């Protein structure tokens, strides 16, 4: 069975603080793919990143970074020096070959000026 | 168009009526997905299409829900005899292929309210 758990329902930080959003997944397959999506107040889900299970290299893109650790089945997302525009609901998702995405319930991030 | 287009943006209807939701995927994308997002909930998978075929209909909540895709492009999600629990945002996504590793690109959704 596939499952994605985002234990943090809501997080509130002050602008310029760093924040980490947790994602823990469950799967029995050795080949799988992990995703992060951002859903701003406008509602559209925006694709942020994809990792495959064979690539554990961490990735940095501007203020965003992702830490993929197979040993703990986690794929955490860190925003450095948060900004008000980062306020959104963030979803972690998992898929395998030929399967639809399984989403976590999301973490609502509020960045306060 | 440049992105996934969904219409209408909002739909308010009375309980018992039928509704049709439309999705126009990104040009060239062969896979198309429908999800439902209820208030405070995550995204619930409904159905996906590879071309015009729907290999996985397991997520459809009841036989009141159906979907079709024609010409490998536009898809319509139909809900018959709507109930109040059908109120949600219905999201459509498309990807180049249905291969698991392809990112899905989402539309803005249709917010459905059943009175």
What's the layout of helices and strands?
The complex is a heterodimer of chains A (113) and B (115).
Chain A: E1 3-5, E2 10-14, E3 19-21, E4 24-26, E5 33-39, E6 46-52, E7 59-61, E8 64-69, E9 74-79, E10 88-95, E11 102-103, E12 107-112
Parallel strand pairs in A: 2-12
Antiparallel strand pairs in A: 1-4, 3-9, 5-6, 5-10, 7-8, 8-9, 10-11, 10-12
Chain B: E1 5-7, E2 10-13, E3 19-24, E4 31-37, E5 43-50, E6 53-56, E7 65-69, E8 75-79, E9 88-95, E10 105-106, E11 110-114
Number of strands of chain A: 12
Mean pLDDT score of chain A: 93
- Oligomeric description of these chains: heterodimer
How many helices of chain A? The count is 0
Derived from helix and strand composition plus strand pairing, the structural class of chain A reads: mainly beta
- Percent in strands of chain A: over 45%
Mass-distribution shape of chain B? globular
| Uncertain stretches of 5 or more adjacent residues of chain A | none
Can you give the mean pLDDT of chain B? Answer: 92
What's the number of extended β-strand segments of chain B?
A: 11
Ends distance of chain A: 41 Å
The largest interface is: A-B, 25 and 23 residues
Taking Cα atoms only, what radius of gyration of chain B do you get, to the nearest Å?
13 Å
Helix content of chain A: under 10%
Order of helices and strands of chain B: EEEEEEEEEEE
Order of helices and strands of chain A: EEEEEEEEEEEE
In percent terms, what proportion of residues of chain B is strand? over 45%
Principal-axis shape of chain A: globular
